[in-house]
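Appendix B, example 12.
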Amino acid sequence: MKNRIISFLGTIAAASRARRDVGRAKSLGESVGLRDREGRFKHESTGSNTAAVSDVASKLASQIRLVQRQPGDGSRRLAACSVDGVFHLIRRFVSIILLATLSSFQQSALGQSDLGFQFVRVKYESVPWSRWNMWATDYPAAEQNLHTAIEMTTDIRLDGPPIVLELTDAAINEYPVLYLTEPGYWLTNDEEADALRAYLERGGFIIIDDFHDYPGRARRQWDNFYDNIRRVFPERELVELPADHLIWTVFFDIDPVAAPSTKPYFSASDDVYYAIYDDNGRMMVIVCYNQDIGDGWEWPDRNASDESSVSFQMAINFIVYALSH
């Protein structure tokens, strides 16, 4: 995992610096009519998920002027503009030299698969009072569409299609980010809890998404999730994420308070985000409650414009944050 994170540093550092162009890009977005009056991107539905993802992703790319396809080759490079562009090219060159140096030292230990990002969904056993495969909600379209958005809006190199792993599979330690959906129906055990704890304490990061409870009713899904996460970290408490936390601005600028939920029966104020930190203040777990960003990835042509766009934005921010921390 350390090798993967080292390999990502040059790319992520460049991506984070590119975010400084957000202000100018916002003006550009407004000039071509991509934003609504609240400043969030619009999305016109299309007939297929692929076209819809491309539509959303191209607009996200326009937001920060991040991706620019160069004529004559198939590569994507961060767009250089004025003085910032010159500095970016210099930093980019230095990053490439550092990565090449690291590769020369680690060539015997690193394979091609150590140099790219791959989405990992967690497979788990469901509680008896739900369907057996709650872990597979939105699968596989959600992560396939997310991979497309990552490729179109960032410089992160993808290394193979999304995969599914169980927490007891030692292979999880080869991947810096895990995704667990529908934790309201998650049923863990001591072996899984110990494996997840070890993974997170070694530097891993997990996104927990897609569970909710109706206002005024018993918090059945929250209680089930909480019981399971306490088995992983009995001594650590969930902390609500403030709106000014770096994770909301590390790549895209996101206002988590105004961000809409993909659940149509919740208002923008109902979704809440929590984290668990290690002893050094590093975020290990991010929790999306009364929210379902995976649904936004799966159905970009059916979700309303803001819900789908912010779902991709959040996922990419979470991934960039995890890889750079």
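The first helix runs from residue 2 to 18. DSSP finds nine helices and eleven strands in the chain.
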